[in-house]
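Model it.
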Amino acid sequence: MAKTAGRVGVFVRGVIEELKQVTWPTREELLGSALVVFVGVALLGAFIGTCDVLLSQAARALLR
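Modeled.
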């Protein structure tokens, strides 16, 4: 058990050292990226919803 705890400690120290080297985005960069993601998701959702409606209507018309 002590061997495992020692390895976990080494791992956590390594993670902390790596996180110190990360270049974190500024607030403006983060908000800009989030906006791009939200707009992209909204557009993709609208596209998929439109395709769903059109294909549903086409299938309904064919099955009549």
